[in-house]
């Protein structure tokens, strides 16, 4: 039998397998504690389990972990980590401190195949999906790093690192199950945000699958012509399809949707563009995050200046829309998603 990634298994699945080994339920509770609370990543150290049980586990399972490659600290408190995977691939994760939270930004793929014109990860292309273990283990490593620096663990998780989470649907959802389940990290779903470039079918699938976390849509423009150029994913998932998918998602989940909008100088930052955005948001309640563009050498774009940004935001606020302006963090450490890996 092929060995399985133990980090991908739910408590119920692990219980079933271990009962086949002849183990009692409380032993499986102990095993789950070792994995999810004590964060031990080898069976040898699970000292209260019998030697026979540990050997059975060793034969049947492995841990798909990530190793720290580099850690860079920004003057604003952001820490960016590159992780090395078992096959030598490199991915990125970030610890982002804010007033009331410590957010872990984690990756879902090595690279990304969706080729958004402004994104450093997009220029890398797609290498492979991450396993459940590789996704969840980023959180544990970032949590350790956060505890060392801030004396406090991670409070929130965003799937905004490298890759498109909805193209690695099953593993991403299994990782969320591990973060949220009672015997796992027991994190509230409201503390987790999945960001997507807008794969309409899978947004609807999330709703059908009872998704309880937040969803952020990387819209960046509500104009098909501009979006086709910025985000090739728009060709198969145009504004109308995306709008239908979000309306469907909202109908089923009643969760407010976040809209991510990066202002690019001369591209999507006029009042007419703001009006198109406002029209787009009429079908469902949203929170609009205006994100300062993190410029990098792999794309020709520049961020919009303060005057244009203020006018854009003021227009939306006049319509009583909820708007947050998010300034880019970690500029001194190349924190734009994919930038560090692309540099190598
Ligand atoms: N693939 C998913 C999640 C990863 S990207 C998605 O596209 O949503 C996470 C967010 O970072 C997206 O909103 C993306 O548009 C944005 N982004 C990418 N490169 C950026 C940059 N250089 N500056 C600011 N935001 C960027
Ligand atoms: Fe991929 Fe998201 Fe970057 Fe687009 S913005 S290339 S979907 S990671």
Characterization of the model:
The protein has 344 residues and is an alpha/beta fold. The protein folds into 2 domains: 59 residues, DNA polymerase, domain 1; 267 residues, Aldolase class I (TIM Barrel), CATH 3.20.20. The strands form 3 sheets. Strands 3-4-5-6-9-10-11-12-13-14 form a 10-stranded mixed β-sheet, covered by helices on one side. Strands 1-2 form a two-stranded parallel sheet. Strands 7-8 form a two-stranded antiparallel ribbon. A hairpin with a 5-residue loop joins β4 and β5. α1 crosses α2 and α6 packs parallel to α8. The longest helix is centred in the middle third of the chain and has 19 residues. It starts with a strand and ends with a helix. The site of S-adenosyl-L-homocysteine has 17 residues, from β10 and β12.
Name the descriptors:
single chain, 344 residues, alpha/beta, DNA polymerase, domain 1, TIM Barrel, ten-stranded mixed beta sheet, two-stranded parallel ribbon, 14 strands, globular, binds S-adenosyl-L-homocysteine, binds iron/sulfur cluster
Report a brief summary of the structure:
The protein is an alpha/beta fold and 344 residues long.
Lateral strand order in the biggest sheet: 3-4-5-6-9-10-11-12-13-14
Sketch the topology as an H/E string, one letter per element: EHHHEEEEEEEHEHEHEHHEHEHEH
Main sheet record: 10 strands, mixed
Structure summary, number of beta strands: 14
Range of strand content: 15-25%
Please state the second-level CATH architecture of the largest domain: Alpha-Beta Barrel
- The overall number of domains is 2
SS class: alpha/beta
| Unreliable segments of 5+ consecutive residues | none
CATH-defined superfamily of the largest domain: Aldolase class I
- The helix count comes to 11
Hetero groups: S-adenosyl-L-homocysteine, iron/sulfur cluster
Reading off the top of the CATH hierarchy, the class of the largest domain is best stated as Alpha Beta
**What is the CATH fold-level name of the largest domain?**
TIM Barrel
State the distance separating the first and last CA atoms. 38 Å
Mean pLDDT: 94
Which value, in Å, is the CA radius of gyration?
21 Å
- In one word, what is the shape? globular
Helix % is 25-40%
């Amino acid at each position: 039998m092929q060995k399985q990634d133990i980090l991908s298994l739910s408590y119920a699945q692990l219980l079933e397998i271990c009962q086949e080994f002849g183990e009692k339920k409380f032993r499986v509770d102990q095993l789950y504690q070792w994995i999810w609370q004590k964060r031990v990543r080898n069976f040898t150290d699970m000292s209260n389990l019998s030697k026979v049980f540990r050997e059975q586990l060793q034969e049947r399972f492995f841990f798909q972990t990530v190793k720290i490659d580099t850690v860079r600290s920004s003057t604003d408190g952001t820490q960016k980590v590159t992780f090395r995977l078992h096959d030598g691939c490199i991915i990125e994760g970030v610890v982002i401190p804010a007033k009331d939270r410590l957010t872990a930004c984690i990756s879902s793929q090595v690279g990304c195949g969706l080729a958004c014109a402004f994104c450093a990860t997009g220029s890398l292309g797609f290498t492979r999906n991450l396993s459940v273990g590789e996704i969840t283990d980023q959180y544990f490593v970032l949590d350790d790093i956060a505890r060392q620096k801030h004396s406090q663990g991670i409070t929130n998780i965003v799937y905004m690192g490298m890759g498109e989470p909805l193209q690695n649907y099953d593993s991403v959802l299994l990782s969320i199950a591990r973060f949220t389940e009672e015997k796992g990290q027991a994190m509230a779903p409201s503390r987790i945000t999945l960001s997507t470039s807008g794969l309409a079918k899978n947004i609807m699938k999330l709703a059908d699958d009872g998704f309880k976390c937040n969803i952020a849509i990387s819209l960046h423009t509500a104009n098909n012509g501009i979006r086709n150029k910025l985000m090739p994913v728009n060709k198969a998932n145009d504004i109308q399809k995306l709008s239908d998918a979000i309306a469907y998602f909202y109908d089923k989940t009643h969760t407010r949707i976040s809209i991510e909008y990066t202002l690019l100088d001369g591209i999507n930052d006029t009042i007419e563009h703001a009006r198109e955005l406002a029209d787009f948001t009429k079908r469902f309640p949203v929170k609009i995050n205006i994100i300062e563009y993190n410029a990098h050498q792999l794309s020709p774009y520049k961020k919009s200046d303060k005057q244009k940004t203020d006018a854009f935001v003021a227009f939306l606020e006049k319509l009583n829309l909820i708007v947050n302006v998010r300034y880019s963090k970690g500029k001194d450490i190349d924190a734009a998603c994919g930038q560090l890996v692309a540099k190598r």
